[in-house]
Amino acid sequence: MFGIEIIDASLLPAMLVALVAGLISFLSPCVLPVVPPYLAYMSGVSMSDLSHSRNKALLAALFFVMGLSTVFLLLGVAASAAGRALLQYQAYFNTVAGVIVMIFGAHFVGVYRIGFLDREARLDAGDQGGSAFGAYILGLAFAFGWTPCIGPQLGAILSLAASEASVARGTLLLAIYALGLGVPFLLVAAFLPRLTGAMNWMKRHMERIERAMGLLLWTIGLLMLTGGFSALSFWLLDTFPALGSLG
What we know:
By secondary structure, the chain is an all-alpha fold. Helices cover 72% and strands 0% of the residues. It is built from nine helices and no strands. The chain has helices at 12-26, 35-43, 54-85, 90-109, 132-145, 147-162, 167-204, 206-226, 228-239. Residues 14-225 form the Cytochrome C biogenesis protein transmembrane domain. It comes from Tropicibacter naphthalenivorans. It holds the Pfam family DsbD_TM.
């Protein structure tokens, strides 16, 4: 399904955007601050013992990422299938989706505030701490429950996925988004003591991170609205002719 034949220069810009959007989702105000407590809960250890239980934390983080990736991949399949079914209305869809993504971007830049994007809607996964299965269930809950916070970034990637003519290509974009969001969890689990300073720095500069997130979303929306992704793909082919051999 995910063979090299589905990847070409036209998909590379969207793949890069999906990766960056996943990383920015990790850095969002309702995700980054709770990463260490989540790791401790999923590992079944206290916060003070987390740095001495690296293997447990890494295993829990791996199953957690698998859980959230399951949801994102299913969303990717659904969005891509819907987009393919509505292929004749693709131009209208891209215009509407581009405008919505730009509105989300303006919210994070600070032009105005949209109330529901400042709230979290977490799902209770129950008493599932301390086991790989519990971490997987918590990953599922995370993917469903944090959508008000990571929804704009996720919505932008779903819009890109729906604009693809292939279900496989659209699902790949969601897989890359999940990679961008999930890999930092694994890195924090593996190197938590060393990354504490960096995470604290990010928390102190959360407002700037939000603005960068908003600028990215606004740019994605503008590219969707104007057909800029196609223009960027042609530029990549002209600048790096070897990319033409992909696919």
